[in-house]
Amino acid sequence: MTLQRQHNLNEAEEWFFRLSQKIEANASLRHLDANIELEPFFRDLLNRLFGWTLSSSNWTGPINQDSFDLDDRQNRVAVQVTSSVDSTKIRKTLTSFLPSHRTDFDQLVFVYPVLKMPDSRADFSKQLAGFDFAPGRDRRDLRDLLRAIQNLSIDKQDEVISLLRRELRPLGSALRMGADQNVQAITAILLYISAGVPSSEPEDQPDANRKMLRFREHAAYLKRQFTEYVHCYRAVAEARRAVGYDAVRSVRCAAWLRERSLAALMQHGDNAALAFDGLVRQLLDKVHASGNDCDDSAMRYFLADELIHCNVFPNPVADA
To answer: How far is C-alpha 203 from the chain's CA centre?
Structure first.
């Protein structure tokens, strides 16, 4: 297994572990809202893992119907997302599902937001009446989904990891025991990128307008990275104060960002949008590899702010 695949699986496993803990806590407190809110997350996750085109059934049919939550009518698959792992729940669902929907679907899948579901030896033949349902095949827990991630290509794995980070981000924040994870993450990044000795000098007169002219095709996208995530200003400012963002450290950070951003531009054929996103992923991967969390928006604002100061995608000296 390659290092990147192992890294992706380790991160997915961590997110699933946190999710299962949250569901367990909700069950003990009898909070059901989180289970309902998970339906869109599993819709998007299952579509990526299995190539389905699931939609949310509770928006097109009776709200919170008993028999299924998601459906793909083209592939004839219905999915129920539930934290109830006992056979009673399955019998109740089958009894409700089959009379009305057996002609619309060939498969009913139960997805459990837990790491390990109990084995089922129950006999459902009375409820099935010939419908093709096998507990060993049609019940899936988070371990099953982790195995599905393992079989994806690297690019598809990256899509899944990005989804997990976006959708389950609050679980990471909750585990920081009240600390601001974004401040901690940006602080760690500043320490990391300022560790080396700079090999170049920053621009004497940063010209953000000239930069936007260079990247006319992607200028609107680059501007949005600042305007849409400006609410992360405080986290970035606090991180800079925490590390002592003085003349020496700022020059070292600028040198690292210039070198890596120019390399990203070269890698992506001068596509500034793709290069910017690649730099975001590079720094987020560094944060996650250390066992910490960071909002995607905070990292985007940090890099956008550095872009305005011409430390990201610096203007060529020859054009000055």
So the answer is: 35
Q: Does residue 34 share a domain with residue 146?
A: yes
Closest C-alpha among 200, 308, 186 to residue 245: 186
Whether residue 133 sits in one domain with residue 221: no
Cα–Cα distance for residue pair 101/103, rounded to 1 Å: 5
The arithmetic mean of pLDDT across residues 171-179, rounded, is: 51
Residue 109 φ then ψ, to 5°: -115, 135
Q: Region 238-256: what's the mean pLDDT?
A: 88
Comparison of pLDDT for 195 and 150, the residue scoring more:
150
If you compute the radius of gyration of the chain from its CA atoms, what whole number of angstroms results? Answer: 24
Please state, in angstroms and rounded to a whole number, the distance separating the CA atoms of residues 157 and 223: 29
Per the structure, how many domains does the chain have? Answer: 2
CA-closest candidate to residue 306, choices 271, 244, 261? 261
- Indicate whether 167 belongs to any domain: no
**DSSP-derived secondary structure letter, 134:** -
* The token pair that represents 287 in the structure block: 């944060």
Residue 164 belongs to some domain of the structure: no
pTM here is 0.57
* Triad 114, 294, 179: Cα angle to 5°: 90
Cα 126 to Cα 133: distance, rounded to the nearest angstrom: 12
Same domain, 203 and 85: no
CB neighbourhood size of 300 (10 A): 22
Give φ, ψ of 173 to 5 degrees: -60, -40
Angle at which helices 181-193 and 296-308 pack, to 10 degrees?
50
pLDDT single digits (tens) 45-95: 999 999 999 998 876 555 446 689 999 999 999 999 998 899 999 999 999
DSSP secondary structure code for residue 78 in this structure? E
Residue-range definition of the domain harbouring residue 96: 3-150
**Sheet bearing 55-56, strands edge to edge:** 55-56, 70-72, 77-81, 107-111, 139-140
Whether residue 146 is found in the same domain as residue 204 = no
